[in-house]
Amino acid sequence: MSRGWWNALWIVLVCSSWACSKPEAPAKNTAEADNATGGLKLAPPEPDDAGDDSGKARISDKSKTSAGIDGKNPFQDSAKNSPVEEGVPRKSLDGRWILVLTRPAQEQQFIDFHTGIVAVSAAKDDEGKLVAKWTAPTEVLPPAKLVSSEINNKSIRLIFNIDGGTKLDFQGTLKDGVVYGNALFGNCLPARLLPTKAEALDAFNVSPEPTDARELSQAFSKKDPKAALKALDDFVADHPQSPLGMMAWETRVLISARLDVAAEDLEQLIADYQQAMAMWGPRLQQTSQGNIGIILAQEKYNPEFSLKFVSTADKSITDESLKELKDQLKPVREAILTVQALSYVESDDADRADKAFNFLTKLRGKKPFDPAVLYGLARYQEKAKQTDEAIAMYAELVSLPMLEAFLQREWAQKPDAPKRDLPSATLAKLWEAKHGKTEGLDEFKDETYRQRVVAFADKPSAEAPAGNKLVLCELFTGSSCPPCVGADIATGALEFTYPKTQVIVLRYHQHIPGPDPLTNADGEDRFSNYYHGQGTPTVVLNGAPVNNVGGYLPNSPDIYRGLKTLINQQLEAKATVQVGVNARVVDGTLQLVANVTGLEQLGDEANDVRLRVVIAEDEVHFLARNGVRGHEMVVRRMVGGPAGVEPKEGKLAIKESIPLSELKSSLATYLKKYEEDEGIDFPAKPLDLKRLHVVAFAQNDESKEILQTNAIAVTAGDSTTSNAITPASGKATAKKPSTDN
Q: Could you tell me the domains of the chain?
């Protein structure tokens, strides 16, 4: 929590994207830097309101934030210049109002987005009935159209259609001259209508930082939880009408749950929160109930209390516009039941332990890589003296990417909990007790990895009909990239399900976020210069980028299913061109030919088509820093360069002879130069190059569409490496300074 409690709440309630970033990536978040206005722009939300396409790396540009202000006026300008109406509070909705949405912009930052002016006046054809008109929109909101308004006494509802297909739904009630309410725009958050006599907002900063934001940020930044709670208590007491109160209250609940406060104290805190949210409307109260349920599950608070609360929250969410939030409570309830089962599975009550074990066993079928579930099953089997089963379960925790690290992190969050041995230590102890020695354990872990890592994949599919278009799946990944694990494993599962006559996966390794010995210059060029990639993982299917591919091992089944759906749609297409490829190794030289036929069917498009040929290594056994042990179809070179070959006289073909010794030497030279430039030493440089594939594909460089792909397997000779994993999981070590004069 070194960066504050706000980050924890952001992760729990908002952020669902994972990626490793390149340096100096452009800013993109819920709020984007807007150079034209000098402020921030409120982007339409993604479906999950992450504000970003998951799997695409982004760097927050914190230098492009709006300036903070002092005083009570929500604009940066002086009070005498402000469009906010001063004086006696309005008692009617008649007049002009500024629609203000207060939303998180970046970590530890909030922005008051002043979206435009709502003019409320009596209808010409119906004396006394008030109607609303949307005027003077600002650039902080994408183009919006007011499509519906309901005004009843002191209550108002406004519904906007936003460019891009999203909606903004505001509900509020007049109180003390301000309309307090909420806006559903992705998430449901506090929103206001501020009185104004101005007809436009062009002369003002329309995306300022709220006046109390810095005080809240100071509370979030306190590392000591009790000090943070005190600061948050003071904030909600001093600013009862602040739109930032929602975040303050929910962070109070999060910290209290993490401190494991008494259930009656937490219940009172939640009740006080509900009362504080009443001024912002029933929909926001219902939203807060759902959010608290998510927080309780995330913090693994008292299962009995949490289950009762989630049941109450589920019944309380009656607003139809909050259906997605209500649906989220189903997996939340399952998560709480899991916490309960994990506490029961080691119980001395045999019946209770057996029921918990059965629950976790069923859950494992749905969540095969949940480390807590696997650990609970292993502990039960160990306690029941089911040694073989316990060894197998502990081996999964140890051999599968990052699962043991996740357990360590979870245990570290509860320092007062009983100390436990790491799964690796318990596995070694059980193995030695059974076999009398530790020999053979490493091979057992390797085999466990191979069997379990694609256990969720569907059975191999049938061959595709002749003439159909293959799908080329290009994965840009990194062996030191933790959130690349999900995509690495998911694409491996694709290779299990689909034959290479249907789907071909190529992996281009990158030095993101750290050094990667499987990287080469061609792969870097393909990523940065051709696809203009910014971070890993990135998946491109037949030239089209795919969103939401970042994640860890537990996310891999979902990533796999998402990719599989897209692939199945593309497999039905007929190919407009055909790609031929042939290759063999003669006296240590790889001889290959490839060509594209059917260009005449493309007309002028044929001029944009390029033939690219890739040499990929079938499998590299290398224990990466992110825990991935096997790396399939690793791109080693793009023959003829990343730019590919263009048509000549209506023909598109390539013919090359490449000594494998030269290929290996060039890769080694690249890695050596990288070591020298970065001042590091790779702990291992896997360069076997015995089992290869030559992959050829035709791609339209204008549209990036891949028109057809073909591949052929090549064996260069007996492999010089075994199937054992290269034990090189540590960081690339920094070189010692030279002592030479």
A: 79-196 (2.40.128), 213-341 (1.25.40), 345-452 (no CATH), 471-715 (2.60.40.10)
